[in-house]
UniProtKB/TrEMBL annotation:
Ranges in coiled-coil conformation: none
UniProt xrefs under PROSITE patterns: RIBONUCLEASE_II, S1
Entry protein name: Ribonuclease R
Compartments where located: Cytoplasm
Organism of provenance: Azospirillum thiophilum
Function: 3'-5' exoribonuclease that releases 5'-nucleoside monophosphates and is involved in maturation of structured RNAs.
Alphabetized InterPro entries for the sequence: CSD2, NA-bd_OB-fold, RNase_II/R, RNase_II/R_CS, RNase_II/RNase_R, RNase_R, RNR_Ribonuclease, S1_domain
GO molecular function: exoribonuclease II activity; RNA binding
Catalyzed reactions: Exonucleolytic cleavage in the 3'- to 5'-direction to yield nucleoside 5'-phosphates
Listed EC numbers: 3.1.13.1
GO cellular component, one term: cytosol
Enzyme class label: hydrolase
Top-level lineage group: Bacteria
Length: 723
């Protein structure tokens, strides 16, 4: 073989980097069809050169990988869980620079009677697969050290309480069933009831797991501690670097210059009464173009975050690390410093604000027919709430909405009516599931937990935002400009077969067409609306769906029945939207702040990171709400409630209360005496002796047995002893 036929250094390096595990000369030779002694010598020399310049490292059995890569098999310590419940780990030993790569454990297939799944504190022997230089997946080979009794390592978040031996640490993670002994020398500065971080120590007397307090976070007696627990349990960054804060404080509203002047257009923001930032404003008028009779001209104006947060800046690095804002009942962990999130990037009424605005033209059939993006300067005329706008539309205007009723609010609803018709015709998945709202009083205590109401005013804003997001995606795709799409895949075949079996069992067959559409689900939801099966069917259909994510590879959005969709409308709180803004600015030549080459080259990695931070935020928010809910119910132990079964597992029934939407568990051990079989596809527990069946969605009367605000766990038992 001549040198011209031998693969280049870049080609071989790309192969090494793309491999999920370290590779040897044999795998490289096979991949490039190399043979003979001359090829082997050339390959040997090339690998030696790559190792010498630090491009690769040589490990066990002379296998090579990118620098600081992990081996194919390693001992791991389970350290926590990500926002989607996936366990994360780190190498038990790490000699590289900086922090080790992140490792996520793949779920295991387990049969009844097998050992328990891994938990935080376990040491595991695992097979590793590299996703990229900073992220690995691991498949467990076997457990080496136990996380619930034997020798333990790692760090845990918990509440310190005094005891006869010195102290106890109650873990905040409900999956931890064991408390830790804290001997007096290991107490640190912890006071009774303090929330603390502690290092897990080797087991002491009689195998009792021990811990040493390393950081005091505050007292759980404070009513706002529940959000603090969620923040620290999920590792949410809460402190901005000084450089990022300084950049935000020095920012100023730009002059008009080349921007389009939108300040005379009566744009309004419409948000929830408890909204903390306002990053979108809307306006509508009948289209004056005779070519579009009965059509509409809309403007969706979005805060121009890209003007203030430039690629590679301290602000940008901090925003990327966070990925998104996280909203708790009592506070926000923002993606951007307050000077921007509540200041220059919040579209406050009567103040000039930089924006990116889509002019959208809607046809008489409600379909988006064309659009134009501008970089502008706007001035909102009002900050309105959903309730205000809905009341005005229903004929009950207040002092603020009355002057806007005919000129601003009525056109918005008229345009929405057209768009809603197009949405229905397109056939989207319409899952209108209730959302819990926790209202905090002035003392930081839970005043009320209720289901959040949803009006046409909510749907109006949602539809306008969808139209702008579609327009953003169309610009990117039409100009072959890489960006981040919001993708939602079709349900998997396994989930669909299980769903078909379940729906057939309640007399709602789902066809086996390979060309499944979201409208097929919506038709079933309409059939069962108002029946006892309505909540059940909504829950099961939701669980059958794939998870939405961010990716530079567009596969469409199944749930919205859209071929192209990108998040554009919330750059204050979502970094993905900021990426889309930058991509649009770059491809349309709209000035400074466009997408940089470095980010452009790693959009897949960025999308993966943002999908994970989104799941982390959602889990943290849910955990905080669970803890506030448990605190709200703690004084009502022993009371009877009505609810519905919201989940069925082999270890019990999850029940959602009708009154507050709170969820809790009825352990299988407390059900009427029997042996119960769990049918995962049918979502049932059935007694072998009595045939008594508990099914997802069924109404039940329950008694509250326990509500623990620290772990956020709530336990029930059936009110009727015979089930």
């Amino acid at each position: 073989m001549t040198d011209s036929r031998f693969p280049s250094k870049d080609a071989i390096l790309a192969f090494i980097r793309s491999s999920t595990t370290p590779v040897g000369k044999r795998e490289i030779a096979r991949a490039f069809k190399l043979s003979g002694s001359a090829d082997r010598e050339m390959l040997k020399d090339l690998l030696r050169d790559l190792e010498a310049d630090g491009t690769v490292e040589r490990g066990r059995n002379k296998r090579v990988a990118p620098p600081q890569s992990l081996p194919a098999v390693a001992v791991l310590l389970v350290t926590g869980a990500d926002a989607d419940g996936e366990l994360s780990a780190r190498p038990l030993t790490w000699t590289g620079e900086g922090n080790p790569p992140r490792i996520f454990l793949l779920p295991e297939r387990r049969s009844r009677g097998e050992d328990r799944p891994p938990t935080v504190g376990d040491t595991l022997l695992a097979k590793l697969a590299r996703i990229n230089d900073r992220l690995y997946e691991a498949r467990v080979i076997r457990r080496i050290g136990s996380g619930d009794g034997g020798e333990r390592e790692g760090r845990i978040l918990g509440v310190y309480r005094p005891s006869a031996e010195g102290g106890r640490l109650q873990p905040t993670d409900r999956r931890h069933k064991t408390e830790f002994l804290v001997l007096p020398p290991n107490r640190g500065e912890a006071e009774p009831g303090d929330l603390v971080f502690a290092d897990i120590l080797p087991a002491g007397r009689a195998g009792q797991p021990q811990a040493r307090v390393v950081e005091r976070l505050g007292s759980t007696k404070e009513p706002r501690a529940f959000s603090l627990i969620a923040i620290h349990a999920h590792g949410l960054p809460t402190v901005f670097p000084h450089a990022a804060l300084r950049e935000a404080e020095l920012a100023a509203v730009p002059a008009l210059m080349q921007r389009e002047d939108l300040r005379d257009i009566p744009l309004v923001t419409i948000d929830g009464a408890d909204a903390r930032d306002f990053d979108d404003a809307v306006w509508a008028e009948p289209d004056s173009d005779p070519e579009n009779p009965e059509g509409w001209h809309l403007i969706v104006a979005i805060a121009d975050v890209s003007y203030y947060v430039r690629p590679g800046s301290a602000l940008d690095r901090a925003a990327y690390e966070r990925g998104n804002s996280v909203y708790f009942p009592d506070r926000v962990v923002p993606m951007l410093p307050e000077a921007l999130s509540n200041g220059l990037c919040s579209l406050r009424p009567g103040e000039d604000r930089a924006c990116l605005a889509f002019h959208l033209w809607i046809g008489r059939n409600g379909v988006l027919i064309r659009h134009r993006l501008v970089r502008g300067l706007m001035r909102s005329v009002a900050r309105l709430t959903y309730d205000q706008v809905q009341a005005c539309h229903d004929g009950r205007p207040d002092e603020e909405t009355a002057p806007l009723a005919g000129s601003v609010i009525a056109p918005l609803f008229a345009a929405y009516a057209r768009m809603a018709g197009a949405r229905a015709k397109r056939g989207t998945l319409e899952l209108d599931l209730p959302e819990r709202r926790v209202r905090i009083d002035g003392r930081g205590r839970v005043a009320e937990i209720a289901v959040r109401e949803r009006h046409d005013s909510h749907r109006l804003i949602e539809e306008f935002m969808i139209a702008a997001n579609v327009a953003a995606a169309e610009v990117l795709e039409g100009r072959s400009m890489p960006g981040l799409y919001r993708i939602h895949d079709r349900p998997s075949m396994d989930k669909m077969e299980a769903l078909r079996g379940f729906l057939a069992g309640i007399g709602q067959p789902l066809g086996k067409s390979a060309d499944l559409t979201p409208d097929q689900f919506t038709r079933i939801l309409r059939k069962v609306a108002g029946t006892s099966h309505a909540t059940l069917v909504s829950e099961v259909i939701l669980r059958a769906q794939a998870q939405a994510a961010y990716s530079p590879d567009n596969i469409g959005h199944f749930g919205l029945a859209l071929h192209r969709y990108a998040h554009f409308t919330s750059p204050i709180r979502r970094y993905a939207d900021l990426i889309v803004h930058r991509a649009l600015i770059r491809t349309l030549g709209l000035g400074v702040g466009g997408l940089d080459d470095e980010t452009l080259g790693r959009l897949a990695e960025v999308g993966e990171h943002l999908s994970r931070t989104e799941r982390r935020a959602a889990t943290a928010e849910r955990d905080a709400v669970d803890r506030y809910t448990a605190a709200f119910l703690a004084d009502r132990v022993g009371e009877r409630f009505g609810g519905r079964i919201s989940g069925v597992s082999r270890f019990g029934l999850f029940v959602r209360l009708d009154e507050s939407g709170a969820d809790g568990l009825i352990p299988v051990s407390t059900l009427p005496d029997d042996r119960y079989d769990h049918d995962e596809a049918a979502h049932t527990l059935t007694g072998q002796r009595t045939g008594r069946t508990y099914r997802l969605g069924s109404p039940v009367g329950i008694v509250l047995v326990e509500a623990d605000p620290i772990s956020g766990s709530t336990l029930f038992r059936l009110a009727d002893s015979n089930g």
